Amino acid sequence: MPPRASVDPRGPRFAAWVTSAVLVAVLATGWWPLLAAQALVFAVGAFAGLRYAPYAALFRVLVAPRLAPTDEREDAAPVRFAQGVGFGFAVVGALGYAFDVPALGLVATAFALAAAFLNAAFGFCLGCETYVLLNRLSIIKPKVGTAR
User: Fold this and answer.
1) Residue 25 Ramachandran class (φ > 0 left, ψ -120 to 50 alpha, else beta)
2) Which of 43, 77, 88, 103 is surrounded by the fewest CB atoms within 10 Å?
3) Dihedral pair phi/psi, residue 130, rounded to 5°
């Protein structure tokens, strides 16, 4: 069986800080193209893999070299699932703003911001915990070796 992919847990927290800043800007401006861009960032992480995610690349190039090395790793599958959930909220929010349903855009963006901020500030990944719960309830099954 191939090993499960893993990530440095500081990377997703960095990404959550960047995501939080983007989502705050969206809430302040209602500018749906920025939210659509964030949806694309989520999509890359969720569907192509975390190694291709733009904020992960920023972390690897700009942040990680300045940090002390760590042996701490976490399973990438819950993080990818969380990116997929973020993608869903960002798409709904962008559509809400784009089609002049600002309440929908606001609520979806606010939910995404709440989840991103929980991860950034407290290291609590709501999407990751949801993945673990769904896995425990046998609603989803992890795919070994595909979490990239």
Assistant:
1) alpha
2) 103
3) -65, -40
> Cα(106)–Cα(9) distance, rounded to whole angstroms?
29
DSSP-derived secondary structure letter, 114: H
Contact present, 5 and 77 (Cβ < 8 Å): yes
Which residues share a beta bridge with 75? 6
> Given the structure tokens 């896995």, which residue do they identify?
135
CB atoms within 10 A of CB 51: 14
pTM of the full structure: 0.90
9 conformational bin, left if phi > 0, alpha if psi -120 to 50, beta if neither: alpha
For residue 148, pLDDT beyond 60: no
Helix H segments across 9-146?
10-29, 32-43, 54-58, 76-98, 102-122, 126-136
What's the mean pLDDT when you consider all of the chain? 94
CA distances to 16, 77, 96, 104, 140 from 119, in Å: 6, 16, 25, 23, 22
- How many residues does the structure list for the chain? 148
Q: Is the pLDDT of residue 144 over 70?
A: no
When mean pLDDT is compared across 28-32, 77-81, 106-110, 136-140, the lowest value belongs to 136-140
